[in-house]
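Incident log, structure service

09:12 report received: a user says their structure output differs between two submissions of the same chain.
09:20 pulled the input from the user's history:
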Amino acid sequence: MSDRLSEIAAFVEVARQRSFVRAADHLDVSVSRVSRAVAALETRLGVRLLQRSTRRVALSEAGRLHVARCEALLAELVDAEAAISERNTALRGALRISVPSGFGLTHLAPMLPDFLRQHPQLSIELQMSNRFVDLIEEGYELAIRVGTLRDSRLAARKLGTNRRILVAAPAYLREHGAPRHPRQLAQRACLVLDIGEHPDQWALHGRNTRHAVRVGGPLLSNNVLALRTACVAGLGVALLPRFALGAQLADGALVRVLPHWQSAEQGIYAVYPSHRFIPAKVRAFVDFVESRLRG
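09:34 re-ran on a clean worker, output below:
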């Protein structure tokens, strides 16, 4: 039975990584051992599970059908062992996370001290960037993403929702006047968040309608906090994530512009390489972040 489980584990990892070399690195065994295990599984089943070439590895039709069942089998084993061991084992090791810079600075960074105090044997490598990292290729165990998920290979858990709203400093509105309709934003100085394919096209949703307007202005940046600072300084109108504006709206440094208009709702997601084999440290961190966001 142990040989069969080894064969299944090798096959699943090669299917996930699309590479015998990366699978061997992840399993901490030799490439030849992984190759022999997969070949033995194919021989025993009498079907080819993987299509191999000099450049890539792909699942055959039989492989696509079989990998889901193999993942479920291994996941049951992992979950059964984890249910016993995690109860009495402190989280330890390193957790590599990618987060958007705005969300990371305003929300995630303030949470980290409490989480790390709860788990003193755990360390976190936090990379903040608006670049969509490849979790599998770049070795991330977890990413937080705001917006539309692009990679269907990844597992995702929704943690909350967010919208972008229009804001400006009171001084800017006193000098230039508050727009009364989204079309008037084209005549205002706008501070543009450089995320997505057409960042200068603001798609706004009203109560029962939608309006798109092309904007421009003195600052284009992929950093939410840089735009927020410029907006507070009175440089123009910005369309920014609501999660980054709480303090500024509360103290009056910024006010809503066209308050009945906002972006479409976006999801805030925790994303990891697979629904299966979720490490205890990843599960604990996601649970912690979700509870704080709900709070």
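09:41 both user submissions now match this output. Likely a transient worker issue. Closing.
09:42 reviewer note: The chain has a mean pLDDT of 88. The domain at 90-161+269-294 is CATH 3.40.190.10 (D-Maltodextrin-Binding Protein; domain 2).
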